[in-house]
């Protein structure tokens, strides 16, 4: 019996009466509803609240339902974040215009790498998340390898997002110069 699967846990305890069937149905609905609470908690201070929500979902036995939905949500947010972040040097030059020391110049090679990584991780997160969410709903369990694959995609998204932030921050900092000089 694994910790990740509701179905495997219930194999030994087949319902004997209508009351048992109703109780099992109610437990399943409670587990489905609890996943969305974990999603909200995981969005508070990522990645710390995300790790805590994963731990709590694992303890509750709903990790196999939580991780695919979490991957879908974070992938959508990751794609929007990356698009906004990689377009921010142009926005800074539009807003500050002539007050900049020099116009932001984004190295095309590094920017291309970030765009490719973002697109690949977005496709992998969306496709993998929806596929494994449907599989978890049908089978009421997911193999540990598939859950770990989705967690790996999430970790890569966090790493790429942080790398993009530091890359764009350095470009903007070079353009603005020392804005605190004279304070």
Element order: H for helix, E for strand: HHHHHHH
Number of spatially distinct domains = 1
Tally of alpha and pi helices: 7
The oligomeric state of the chains shown is single chain
Q: What coarse outline follows from CA principal-axis ratios? A: elongated
Strand segment count: 0
Radius of gyration: 22 Å
Could you tell me the mean pLDDT? 82
Strand content: under 5%
Level of helix content?
Answer: over 70%
Describe the fold and architecture.
The chain has 183 residues and is mainly α. The protein has one domain. It has helices spanning 6-11, 18-42, 48-60, 63-86, 88-96, 108-139, 144-176. Helix 3 packs antiparallel against helix 4 and helix 5 (88-96) packs parallel to helix 7 (144-176). The longest helix is centred in the C-terminal third of the chain and has 33 residues, at 144-176. The termini are far apart.
Give me the secondary-structure topology.
Blueprint: H1 6-11, H2 18-42, H3 48-60, H4 63-86, H5 88-96, H6 108-139, H7 144-176
Helix pairs in contact: 2-3, 2-4, 3-4, 4-6, 4-7, 5-7, 6-7
Short characterization:
The protein has helices at residues 6-11, 18-42, 48-60, 63-86, 88-96, 108-139, 144-176. It has 183 residues and is mainly alpha-helical.
Summarize this structure as a short list of keywords or feature phrases.
7 helices; 183 residues; 78% helix; mainly alpha
